[in-house]
Task: structure prediction
Amino acid sequence: MGKTDIPAPTRPRVETRTMVERPRLYKVILLNDDFTPREFVVTVLKAEFRMTADQAHRVMITAHKKGVCVVAVFARDVAETKATRATDLARAKGYPLMFTTEPEE
Ligand code: TYC
Result:
């Protein structure tokens, strides 16, 4: 390189790191009530959440005794859709059964 030469430009030594967060998962929660028949709760859990009779019965009994039970965890839209569909199945039969969602952590 002679006295008047201009050095070749170098690439800026700068790098961007984009931080991404995993989308939060949402719990579907079953709420107890005094009116919905136990067997109907089990039927809804099997139909909407693909549970076996045994799993559905355990979840139903936990909600019955403790007031609430986490049914399952999904991406937000899936959790909301399933909670709405399950609640609507009960409403169609005139039962007050409720499913809600809430974010994990
Ligand atoms: N508590 C209801 C009854 O005694 C049964 C029931 C269980 C309802 C769980 C809702 O999430 C529930 N018939």
Remarks:
- The mean pLDDT is 93.
- The two ends are 61 Å apart (CA to CA).
- The beta strands are 25-31, 68-75, 98-103.
- Residues 30-34, 36-38, 41, 60, 63-64, 97 surround L-tyrosinamide (CB under 6 Å).
